[in-house]
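Re: that chain you flagged

S.,

Sorry for the slow reply, it's been a week of failed gels. I finally had a moment to sit down with the sequence you sent. For the record, here it is as I used it:
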Amino acid sequence: MEYFYLVNKKYSPNNHIAVFFHLVMARISEQIIEQIRSTADIIEVVSGYVQLKKRGRNYFGLCPFHGEKTASFSVSPERQIYKCFGCSVGGGVINFIMEIEGMEFVNAVKHLADQYSIELQLDETTGQSKDLITRLFDIHTQTAHIYLKNLGTEEGSKVLTHLESRGLTRDTIKKFNLGYSLKQKDALLSAFRTEGVGSDAMKQSGLFIDTKSGYIDRFRGRIMFSISNSAGKIAAFAGRVFESDDPAKYVNSPETPIYNKSKILYGLHVTKQNIRNNNSVIVVEGYLDFLQLYQSGIHNIVAVSGTAFTDQHALQIKRFCEKVHLAYDGDSAGKAAAIRAGYVLLRAGLSPLIVNIPDGIDPDDWVKRDGNLPFLKAVENNDNLLPFHFHNYKGDISTTSGKTAFVNEVLMEIVQIKDPVGRELQGRELSELVGVSAVSIFQSLHNMLEKQKHRQKFQQNNKSPKPKTEDKKQLLENDLIRLCFAEDIAIRKFLFDEVKTEWLVTELSQKIYEKVYIHLHSANAPEASLIMDELKNEAYRNKLAELVFDLEKLTPSLKSAEDCVTRLEKSWINTNIQCLRDELKNAESVGKDPILIMKQIEELQSRINSISYQYSSDE
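Prediction finished late last night. Pasting the structure tokens below so you have them in one place:
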């Protein structure tokens, strides 16, 4: 158990396993949340992730949540909210941290409190009321501690010796939560059952497999790598085979509510600030590649985690830098994977560069053998994507047919670049590389684009008809929500007194209005960012951001509020009248009194007339 003491002294061999299962949920007072919301300026916070430029009253930049070339992501310093007009996301400063860092509300608040040196007073209560996501993260954190502890067992000591023989220090092992899963089929399962951890969270954690004889541990007798999201929360594991003839070299966590392997980059939670400072990142394939390079002092680095490089990985990187060095293994498979990843990066508008690793070696072995200087020199002398692809093309480019095949293969990639300038630059580079005229290259590109447009048009025509744009009732309710944010308190008080929630026909409007309603009597107009923090549903939050982002372009008046309320009530009454008329048609067949229904219709029609008269007399 010596190693376990060294890496984590707060645990001892005699500690009950309950140490690992102490669940707490922090409650933060509304006053502290308000202090954080008012202190954390959204322009300053967002600027840490997005390059913003002022345009008029607002700031604009490339959206960090979807790939784009034209800045449609806007931030309002007056309202302290953001809105992307491309992908429709929106919210306040806390929402932004939740989205960009993949955090829950409480952790986003803590993150901002740390950033602005605001002291938090937390009430700790048992975790029984925690939501599933929080419980899953807790389970993964506890599991990482158990795997770490296992390195101190007789069985795990061999793994520790092996890791050290691979050149990893104990500090590195501790920092990145490496460990060992015991060979016993239910070692982890028994530990959780002993502490009464909920079965629903255990089933959805991905840590256990359902077999004919019951649940067993997914990871058994393997070197364990903890996989954290960009916020540093452990979301999954990868288990590497150890002293076994199991053909599966790696076993990875499946997709779970907290783990999407296409989005997570290994080590990003530790290296993201270095990547941002360098405006470049080195991407490697394996966990050991990452750990060896990081330990050698190379800190602007990430590794792909259990999958090929994806568009989502590219978007993750785009939040922090533009230049990407791909340092994959030096064998043919590694080179092919680097080329595929390069084109993914190209589509995302990033600058891919490929590091020439010596044949038959990987970055881990290279740095362990020769230190980091040769590797860093290779990074400095790396190749652009197209020349690297050309020199490592499997076909015979000395022949006309081979060169034609290469050009067509590259054009199939270039045509997927949405930015026309990016397409042209790559087309010109291809032309110079293979000695084919730019006219021919661009003619081929043009033909491909035309075919692409034709296919898209055909698919669009064969799709089911799109839903109609927002109907009149929804547009009317949108007007009401906007009026709720009017600076004139007379308008807000009028709405407070006159509007009934039942008049709103869409759940979206009802939920937003319920959150805004309680603020209408305040001396100051409601704060959009505060309302957004209270809206837990992303669709509701995005809709509110859309409605209030450009309120300064509107000039609300008491007259417009009266007109809006009149139309809302009339619309509600007309809906009720139509329902009564439908009921009247079948009244006798179902034994209802048609005279009574007609009287109700008459009363409602009379009410419509009185509404019109009432507001017209106030003009």
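What I noticed first: Confidence is low (pLDDT under 50) at residues 1-26, 124-129, 613-619.

Talk soon,
D.
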